[in-house]
């Protein structure tokens, strides 16, 4: 059985409180960044509510018929709703199927659990249809909505959920856990790149993300130095399989923010990419603050565009052409963005 992650003890305590007092919320909205263990927490809670003979400590027994079915992923009272493919919405067909299922009684005597992840990928029609499930509760049914961007969910859904937020843990808890997981000396840097999410940091370690980031940064500097053409790098990044475009964009946002910080003063210890401090300092010495701010805004706007399936090749081309222009010392007009 999975252990409670060290930074989720208090959240688990809150969930156990519902079980102990037998006041199970009809719907829970679990929010927080990727890689904090939201799904794992939801599954632990699910396990206890489905279990036919839970332990006095409010943990699943792991041995009853329900626990075995859940472990085999065949429990009839457990439903997982997710998009067909990552990045796609959860269509109304899935909600219609859910409504048909909910019209039947749960097959076991315990609860029925429905996990929706990412809940913010319900499209307008499916969110409206799902709202009916919350407005007209069915017996012994509990929904767990998991979301990294809960603000995208309609307020009508959010207001009907018990909200539980998973914050990023303190390094004091995250670093020893990463060490336990076999993530060695780079744990601190990986955690930083993963914005403080330990599970994401562990995944980044497996994917050699430090080396990939290093390579991308070098290439980005080559564009600044005029040694690599921006279109050539855009082409390479478009074909890059090892890192998601959103992550690549996030990295550039972080590098530019650090250059701005270094230009403005300051306490260099506060930059987000201390391992790149020297080259970032060099770039800061060559660039002017005002166009950097404009470019930073451009990057943020493109981040929003990325979510709307914009042509990624074109996106990187525009951004890298602007990055090259910024480094020529000309005041760029950023391709009209
Ligand atoms: Zn059990």
Task: Describe what you observe in this structure.
- The chain contains 15 helices and five strands.
- By secondary structure, it is α/β, with parallel strands linked by helices.
- The protein has two domains: about 160 residues, P-loop containing nucleotide triphosphate hydrolases (Rossmann fold, 3-Layer(aba) Sandwich); about 120 residues, Zinc Finger, Delta Prime, domain 3.
- It has a five-stranded parallel beta sheet, sandwiched between helices.
- The chain is elongated, with a radius of gyration of 23 Å.
- Bound molecules: zinc ion.
- Zinc ion (ZN) binds next to helix 3.
Write the topology of this structure:
Blueprint: H1 9-20, E1 27-31, H2 38-50, H3 65-71, E2 78-81, H4 92-102, E3 112-116, H5 124-135, E4 141-147, H6 155-158, E5 162-165, H7 171-180, H8 187-193, H9 198-206, H10 209-224, H11 230-239, H12 245-264, H13 277-286, H14 289-306, H15 312-328
Parallel strand pairs: 1-4, 1-5, 2-3, 3-4
Helix pairs in contact: 1-2, 4-5, 7-9, 8-9, 11-15, 12-13, 12-14, 14-15
Bound molecules: zinc ion (ZN).
In short:
The chain is an alpha/beta fold.
Radius of gyration, taken over Cα atoms and rounded to an integer in Å: 23 Å
Q: Identify low-pLDDT runs.
A: none
**Strand order of the biggest β-sheet:** 2-3-4-1-5
Please tally the β strands and state the result.
Answer: 5
Number of helices: 15
Q: Multimeric state of these chains?
A: single chain
CATH homologous superfamily (4th level) name of the largest domain: P-loop containing nucleotide triphosphate hydrolases
Number of self-contained structural domains: 2
**Percentage beta strand:** 5-15%
Task: Measure the end-to-end span.
Answer: 51 Å
List all distinct small molecules, including ions and cofactors, that are bound in this structure: zinc ion
Helix percent band: 40-55%
């Amino acid at each position: 059985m999975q252990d409670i992650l060290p930074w989720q003890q208090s959240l688990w305590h809150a969930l156990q409180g519902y079980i102990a007092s037998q006041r199970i919320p009809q719907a829970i909205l679990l929010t927080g960044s990727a890689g904090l263990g939201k799904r794992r927490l939801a599954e632990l809670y699910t396990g206890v509510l489905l279990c036919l003979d839970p332990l006095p400590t409010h943990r699943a027994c792991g041995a009853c018929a329900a626990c075995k079915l859940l472990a085999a992923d065949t429990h009839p009272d457990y439903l997982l709703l997710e998009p067909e493919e990552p990045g796609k919405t959860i269509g109304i067909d899935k909600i219609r199927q859910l409504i048909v299922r909910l019209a039947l009684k749960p097959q076991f005597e315990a609860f029925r659990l429905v996990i929706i992840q990412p809940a913010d990928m319900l499209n307008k029609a499916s969110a409206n249809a799902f709202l009916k499930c919350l407005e007209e509760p069915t017996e012994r049914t509990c929904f767990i909505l998991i979301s990294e961007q809960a603000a995208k969910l309609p307020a009508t859904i959010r207001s009907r959920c018990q909200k539980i937020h998973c914050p990023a843990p303190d390094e004091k808890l995250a670093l020893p856990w990463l060490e336990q997981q076999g993530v060695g000396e780079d744990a601190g840097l990986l955690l930083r790149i993963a914005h403080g999410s330990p599970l994401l940091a562990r995944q980044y370690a497996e994917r050699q993300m430090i080396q990939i980031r290093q390579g991308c940064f070098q290439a980005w500097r080559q564009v600044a130095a005029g040694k690599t053409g921006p279109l050539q790098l855009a082409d390479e990044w478009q074909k890059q399989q090892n890192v998601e475009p959103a992550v690549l964009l996030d990295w550039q946002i972080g590098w530019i923010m650090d250059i701005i910080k270094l230009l403005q003063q300051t306490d260099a210890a506060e930059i987000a990419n201390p391992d790149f401090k020297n080259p970032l300092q060099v770039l800061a010495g060559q660039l002017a603050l005002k166009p950097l701010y404009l470019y930073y805004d451009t990057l943020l706007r493109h981040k929003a565009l990325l979510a709307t399936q914009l042509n990624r090749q074109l996106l990187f081309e525009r951004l890298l052409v602007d990055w090259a222009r910024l480094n020529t010392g000309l005041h760029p007009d950023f391709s009209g963005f």
